[in-house]
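seq as requested:
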Amino acid sequence: MATQTGDMATQTGTSHHYTRSADGMVRYGASNFRHIWPAESDLMARLAGLEPVQRVGDWTSRPFTSDSEAHVSVWRSP
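struct tokens:
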């Protein structure tokens, strides 16, 4: 099971992961992340000299729209 907590003002969050092993023990792990908007991704890629290839709304290649909750973006080195 995984849950996330976050703060939109600082664009930071933590992903909490719980797993149960065969002996019944529950293990907890967490990873911190910083949320960035697609425009910020584009700026960082452009500053790194990359060019955009594709952006979709998820790993199944749904279209990226204003209703999308995520994005998968691909850039390449020219």
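The first strand starts at residue 2 and ends at 7.
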